[in-house]
Design a protein that fits this description.
This protein is an alpha/beta fold and 315 residues long. The chain has helices at residues 15-26, 48-58, 73-77, 84-93, 112-115, 129-138, 158-165, 204-211, 270-286, 303-314, and strands at residues 9-12, 31-34, 39-44, 67-69, 98-103, 120-124, 142-143, 171-174, 185-190, 193-198, 239-240, 250-254, 262-263, 291-294.
């Protein structure tokens, strides 16, 4: 593994960059890589030392499990128990922005810290060409939470990663801005039904169309998947939601008719708003105003995921 430097190395996510990153991962290093959602901090999921390096770099609580990224369904089925419902979802949404929480297969070569001691594992098959190339080149399942300090604003550009993690990451692959800009939907498939643990680009309505209505599960105090902490995605300043206008010393993030100092989408497009959410929070965090206000966001479709992230940012 390469030694740490004052500033992380940033390389294009081309063939040479992918090859260098794969070598670092095989040696136990940390690589930040773009996905279609946000940049991930990848390490080999079968190495306890490599996974521990993720937790150290992020300052992440060790009770917060990690998502493991795989290149295809066959690789996923070597790690988790798939039933008919899981295969239906994989066929419909993989590669893509859906993570499934499934029973961990006995004997799967996954470091215990990945699952935080739970009998389940969170799996995703990503669509971004850089992440897919890295999975092929490394021939490893990759644990990859968002590439930022734990609890902070997720990164959608390489410079966000560098500003947040600095020398804690060995290499950053620069693949430009992330298309979706918001983390994957996480769905837990249970014996008695299913439940969305984290809203995201794949909506509950899309899942219901394939699986039927979700189960109203009894609340579980355990953290089963990333993004469930009450306070998360925090920009380091107080955040006020559903703001029609800025108050004194507030940076206003607009939407639709509410213009703001920066806007999620002037046209009121929720997909554009999701893609720009973290970019706008990064701008607000760097602005001179001491507080942040955010315009109202409709709750339908992907708006539910946007509001979920904003409520946790404001907590």
């Amino acid at each position: 593994m390469t030694g740490k430097v004052l500033h992380p190395t940033i390389r294009p996510a081309d063939a040479a960059g992918i090859a260098a990153a794969a070598g670092m991962l095989r040696d136990g290093g940390l690589v930040a890589v773009p996905t279609e959602t946000v940049y991930g901090l990848a390490a080999r999921a079968d190495s306890a030392d490599a996974v521990a390096a993720i937790y150290r770099a992020k300052g992440r609580p060790d009770f917060n499990p990690l998502i493991v990224h795989v290149p295809n369904l066959a690789a996923a089925e070597a790690i988790a128990e798939f039933d008919g419902r899981a295969r239906i979802l994989a066929e419909a949404f993989w590669p893509g922005a859906l993570t499934m929480v499934l029973p961990l297969k006995e004997g799967a070569r996954i470091a215990p810290a990945v699952t935080a001691g739970l009998p389940t594992i969170a799996l995703r098959c990503p669509a971004h060409p850089a992440m897919r190339a890295l999975l092929r080149e490394s021939a490893l399942p990759l644990a990859a939470p968002s590439a930022n300090r734990s609890g902070g604003v997720s990164p959608t550009r390489a410079d966000h990663v560098a500003a947040s993690l600095g020398a804690a990451v060995d290499l950053i692959l620069d693949g430009g801005a992330c298309a979706s800009g918001i983390e994957s939907t996480i769905v837990a498939l249970r014996r008695s039904g299913w439940q969305v643990l984290r809203p995201g680009p794949v909506t509950e309505a899309q899942l219901t169309e394939l699986l039927g209505p979700p189960v109203d599960a009894t609340a579980d105090s355990r953290i089963e998947a990333p993004g469930q902490l009450a306070s998360h995605y925090a920009p380091g300043k107080p955040v006020r939601l559903d703001a029609a206008a800025a108050e004194v010393d507030e940076f206003l993030i607009g939407f639709g008719a509410v213009a703001g100092d920066a806007t999620l989408s002037a046209s009121g497009d929720l997909a554009e708003a999701a893609a720009r959410l973290y970019e706008c929070l990064h701008l607000a965090a760097a602005a001179p105003q001491a507080r942040i206000a955010v315009a109202p966001i409709p709750a339908e479709g992907i708006g539910a995921a946007i509001n979920d992230r904003l409520k946790r940012a404001a907590a």
